[in-house]
Amino acid sequence: DVKVTQSSRYLVKRTGEKVFLECVQDMDHENMFWYRQDPGLGLRLIYFSYDVKMKEKGDIPEGYSVSREKKERFSLILESASTNQTSMYLCASLSRNQPQHFGDGTRLSIL
Amino acid sequence: GQNIDQPTEMTATEGAIVQINCTYQTSGFNGLFWYQQHAGEAPTFLSYNVLDGLEEKGRFSSFLSRSKGYSYLLLKELQMKDSASYLCAASNQAGTALIFGKGTTLSVSS
Prior knowledge:
The complex is a heterodimer of chains A (about 110) and B (about 110). Chain A has strands at about 5, 10-15, 20, 25, 30-40, 40-50, 55, 65-70, 75-80, 85-95, 100, 105-110. With about 110 residues, chain A is an all-beta fold. In chain A, strands 2, 5, 6, 7, 10, 11 and 12 form a seven-stranded mixed β-sheet that branches. In chain A, strands 3-9-8 form a three-stranded antiparallel β-sheet, with no helix packed on it. Chain A has a two-stranded antiparallel ribbon with strand order 1-4. Chain A starts with a strand and ends with a strand. Chain B has no helices and eleven strands. In chain B, the strands form two sheets. In chain B, strands 2, 4, 5, 9, 10 and 11 form a six-stranded mixed β-sheet that branches. Chain B has a five-stranded antiparallel β-sheet with strand order 1-3-8-7-6, with no helix packed on it. In chain B, a hairpin with a 6-residue loop joins strand 9 and strand 10 (about 100). The termini of chain B are far apart.
């Protein structure tokens, strides 16, 4: 079974802090994704990666960056956290033409 | 442009049948996924249609018409635990990314 693991289920940070959200998958998937999910807005793609060292902007990349130094790990970075980045963050991975698998999500609160 | 449309909310009673529709417009298309998401949890995979027609999996079935850009998820013998959000997602041509709809919140009552 595919396992996508996010480092934290709940996280509370302060405005202006640099925040790291970590995601690890154990199925050697090429493609990894970071989404945020907010009520009424659905899943919105922040960044994705097709391979190690590769990254592509999604629909809402502003205020975020990512890192993919190893195939199994995809990190989301909030450079300077703001209150409007309070959200549920979901990491996902997939192999071509296969279902996308999600991590359990990180509920991030910025105070 | 790319667009996935599905109803925002639906209600039904236990034991009933409900059909959740999804229409999609994408620049490239490989297949159609349905996910279930309970409140506070991550989406979980339900079904994947590549070819036209109906795929049945227990109480859940999914249908695809590529020519019409249309899919539906059919839930039979509804149970309270089926109360959740159902996400429709279209796969891009290469099969390497999904475009998600905003989800349909289904409420099942007794």
